[in-house]
Amino acid sequence: MRISYNTETLFEGRDILDVMQVLHAHDLNIIEFWSWEDKDLQAINRLRQELGMEVASIVVKLATMLEPDKREDAVESIRRSAEAACSLNCSRMVHTVGFVKEGMSREEMQQSLIDGLQAAIPALEEFGVTTCIEPLNTITDKELSGYYLNTSQEAFDIVTEVNHPLVKVCYDMYHVQVMEGNVLPRLQNNIRHVGHIQGAGAPGRHELFISELNYDYVFDAIKQMDYDGYVGIEYFPIHDPIDDLVRIKEKFHTG
After folding, report:
1. d(Cα 211, Cα 198) in Å, to the nearest integer?
2. CA–CA separation, 95 vs 85, rounded Å?
3. Which residues have CB under 8 Å from 31's CB, separation 6+?
4. N or C: which end of the chain has fewer CB within 10 A?
5. Is 134 annotated as catalytic?
6. For the purposes of burial, counting CB atoms within 10 Å of the CB of 189, is it exposed (0-12), middle (13-18) or buried (19 or more)?
7. Residues 6+ apart with CB under 8 A from 225
8. pTM, whole model, 2 decimals?
9. DSSP code per residue over the chain
10. pLDDT tens by residue, the chain, 255 residues
11. Active-site residue, 207 included
12. Which of 134, 154, 161, 207 is labelled catalytic?
C-alpha cells in the first residue's frame, strides 16, 4: 500500500514547494494536491525529480459534466488536466462532476455524466491517465449541498456503465462514512472500480485517530485487496501533522 499526502489540506496555505521539502525531510515522498492551474508545474516537476518524489494525483478543474451543452468544455478540461498530470509523471486524476441542474432529472444528469466520461476517453488514452469521479457528502460539508454525486454506489454504477479501465472512482472514506457507512465492505466489494482512495477522520475531517472509523483495521484490510493505487491522507489537522504522518507511513506504507 502506497501512502500519499495531500499538500493542500495537511499544510493549508503553505507553498507547495516548501511543503515538498518538509515532507521529503521526513522521508514522506509521495504527494497529491488539488488545483494545478494556479501552480508552477515546471518548478514542482524539477523539485520532484531532484528529491525523488512522486505525484499520486491532481484534481480536474471543471464546472460540470451534468449538462450536455457544456460537455465540450468539460472534456477539454479533462484533456488539459490529463496533460498536466502526464507532465508530472502522475497517472491519476480526481474530479468532481458538478451540482444538480434545475430542470433536469437525475436520470438525465447521470446519462450526461456517462456520455461525458465516454467522450473523454480518447484524451485519457492519449496521456495514459486514469480519471476518478468522486462522490462527496452533502450533509456535513454544507458548501457541497446540491452536489450531484453523493453516494459511492451511484459512482460505481456509473463507472460500470462507462466500462473503461481509465475511468474509475475516487473512494474517499470520510465522505462515504458520512453518507453511507459500511465503508470497508463497500470498498472490498467494489475494489476493481476504485482508482484512488483517500482518508480522513470522520466526522470532522481531522486526524485519522480522531474518527469513528478504525483506520488501523481499514488500512490492514486494504493491504489484502487487489489494489495497486495510492491511499491519500487528506485531512485538515488540528495540530502539526508531521509526527502523525510519519507514524502512518511507518505502520502502513509497503511501497
Report:
1. 14
2. 13
3. 4, 5, 6, 7, 16, 19, 20, 23, 53, 54, 55, 56
4. C
5. yes
6. exposed
7. 187, 188, 191
8. 0.97
9. -EEEEEHHHHTTTS-HHHHHHHHHHTT--EEE-S--TTS-HHHHHHHHHHHT-EEEEEE---S-SS-GGGHHHHHHHHHHHHHHHHHTT--EEEE---BPPTT--HHHHHHHHHHHHHHHHHHHHHHT-EEEE----SSS-GGGTTBS---HHHHHHHHHHH--TTEEEEEEHHHHHHHT--HHHHHHHHGGGEEEEEE--TTTS--TTSSSS-HHHHHHHHHTSS--SEEEE----SS--HHHHHHHHHHH---
10. 999 999 999 999 999 999 999 999 999 999 999 999 999 999 999 999 999 999 999 999 888 999 999 999 999 999 999 999 999 999 999 999 999 999 999 999 999 999 999 999 999 999 999 999 999 999 998 888 999 999 999 999 999 999 999 999 999 999 999 999 999 999 999 999 999 999 999 999 999 999 999 999 999 999 999 999 999 999 999 999 999 999 999 998 777
11. no
12. 134
Of the listed 8, 32, 67, 234, which one is catalytic?
234
Beta-sheet pairing, 30-32 with 54-59: parallel
